[in-house]
Amino acid sequence: MNARKIVKVIEVEEREQLPVPPDTDPKKPQEPQYKVISCRRFKIQKYPALDGLKIAKVFIAKILPVFQTFIPLIGEARKGGAVLDNMLDNLGQYLSLEGIADTLDKIDPDDLDFIMSMSLRNVFEVLPAGDAQVLNPDGTYGVNDVEFDTMLVLRLVCEVILWGVLSTA
C-alpha cells in the first residue's frame, strides 16, 4: 500500500467512527421557546438568519442608543446596598428623559414597524386546535385580543428579540 491509500483509509475510518451530534443538523429548525404571558401560552421561534441580521442591525444602530443612559446605572446597581438605595431615591439625576425622548424621535417609524412585524410573525399562540400565528404575513392578526393589547404586543416583541437576536442558544 502506498501512503496516499493509507491516509485515505484512515480518513474514512475516522469519519465512520465519529458520531454526528444531533444538534448539528443544519436542516433541523431551532427549538422554539414557550412563554406564558397574560394566562396565554405562546411559542416563540428564532428569526431566520437574514431577518435576524437585519433586525440586529436596526436594533444596535438605532434603538440601543436609547439605553446609553442606563449603562452607568447597571454598574452602580450591581454594587447593591446603600449605593442602590441612593440611586433609587435620586433616580432623576441618573435618567435624562429628554435624552431618551430625543433618541426615540430619531428612530424611523418604518424601522419600528419592520422589527415589530417580523417579531410578531415568529410568535404563535398555542391553542387546542393547533398553533396560530400572532401576525399573519399579510399584516392581519391571527389570534383574538392581540391587536388592542399594547402591553401584550410589546412583551411579545421583546421576548422575540431577546430569544431571536440576543440569545446564543
Question: Can I get a quick summary?
Answer:
Helix content is 53%, strand content 11%.
Features:
single chain, 169 residues, four-stranded antiparallel sheet
Task: Give an account of the 3D structure.
By secondary structure, this protein is α+β, with helices and mostly antiparallel strands. It has one domain. The protein is built from 8 helices and 4 strands. Strands 1-2-3-4 form a 4-stranded antiparallel sheet, covered by helices on one side. A hairpin with a 2-residue loop joins strand 3 and strand 4. The longest helix has 17 residues, at 150-166. The radius of gyration is 23 Å and the shape is globular. The relative contact order is 0.14.
